[in-house]
């Protein structure tokens, strides 16, 4: 088993702003700030590392980093999850404003070019469709740091017809690109799911870290600190 990280907790993810943004910036992301606030009270330093999402899961699974940030249980079922989530989110379908396409189930995707990010889990039906469709009907967005920004630009340029993403993340990034007025929502996936900071199954301290984080989130909520952090990113408490 890989050695545990002493006094240092490394958390990896691709950029998923406003939840995790540019590492080392003034606004590194809501989840980053929560992790830093919680673990600093226990003497730990949090290192947020930007990397490709698929690689982040692989590195955490091996114990090379302590955790992934912004993960759903379907992304990595074998990981150690806190009792407290850090968001409850649903995936939505985004198109250009002039589009008349509307999501009416999996079959409706067969008439459009869908953009989806490599390694993201969109639920069983969509996962199967993406895996079976191939490059002709689905554009897989890849990149170390910001595949979503690339996807938004492709949508604007008519290179793809539909992009799937959670609402807060899409709108935050579209606004940052100055393109928020160009798009609209035309459907969503079945139901919202909790998103977590999830810990490596290979490291013995993961259960303890998960417990510390859960207790810390409850404490931040009770003190009002959670609401203050959320407000910096234009978000509200989901509970």
Give a short overview.
The chain is α/β, with parallel strands linked by helices and 239 residues long. Helix content is 32%, strand content 22%. The protein has two domains: 8-87 and 193-232, D-Maltodextrin-Binding Protein, domain 2; 91-188, D-Maltodextrin-Binding Protein, domain 2 (3-Layer(aba) Sandwich), CATH 3.40.190.10.
Largest sheet: spatial strand order: 2-1-3-10-4
Rounded to an integer, what's the Rg over CA atoms?
18 Å
Average pLDDT confidence is 92
**Count of separate structural domains:** 2
How far is the N terminus from the C terminus? 37 Å
The percent range for strand residues is 15-25%
What would your notes on this structure say?
The chain has seven helices and ten strands. It is α/β, with parallel strands linked by helices and 239 residues long. It folds into two domains: 8-87 and 193-232, Periplasmic binding protein-like II (D-Maltodextrin-Binding Protein, domain 2, 3-Layer(aba) Sandwich); 91-188, D-Maltodextrin-Binding Protein, domain 2 (3-Layer(aba) Sandwich). The strands form two sheets. A five-stranded mixed β-sheet has the order 2-1-3-10-4, with helices on both faces. The longest helix has 18 residues, at 206-223. Mean pLDDT is 92; it is low at 1-5. It comes from Neptuniibacter pectenicola.
């Amino acid at each position: 088993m890989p050695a545990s990280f002493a006094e240092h907790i490394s958390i990896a993810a691709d950029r998923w702003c406003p939840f995790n943004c540019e590492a080392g910036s003034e606004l590194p992301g809501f989840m980053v700030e929560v992790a830093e606030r919680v673990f600093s009270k226990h003497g730990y330093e949090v290192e947020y590392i930007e990397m490709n999402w698929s690689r982040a899961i692989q590195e955490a699974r091996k114990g090379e980093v302590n955790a992934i940030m912004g993960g759903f249980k379907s992304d990595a079922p074998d990981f150690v999850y806190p009792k407290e989530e850090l968001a409850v989110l649903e995936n939505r379908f985004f198109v250009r404003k002039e589009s008349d396409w509307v999501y009416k189930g999996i079959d409706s995707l067969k008439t459009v070019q869908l953009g989806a990010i490599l390694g993201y889990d969109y639920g069983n039906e969509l996962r199967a469709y993406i895996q079976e469709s191939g490059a002709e009907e689905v554009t897989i967005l890849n990149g170390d740091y910001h595949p979503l920004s690339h996807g938004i630009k492709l949508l604007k340029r008519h290179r793809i017809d539909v992009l799937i993403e959670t609402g807060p993340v899409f709108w935050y990034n579209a606004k940052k690109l100055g393109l928020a007025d160009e798009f609209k929502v035309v459907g969503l996936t079945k139901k919202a799911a909790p998103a977590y900071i999830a810990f490596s199954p290979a490291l013995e301290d993961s259960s303890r870290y998960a417990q510390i984080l859960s207790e810390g989130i409850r404490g931040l909520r009770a003190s009002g600190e959670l609401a203050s952090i959320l407000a910096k990113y234009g978000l509200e408490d989901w509970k």
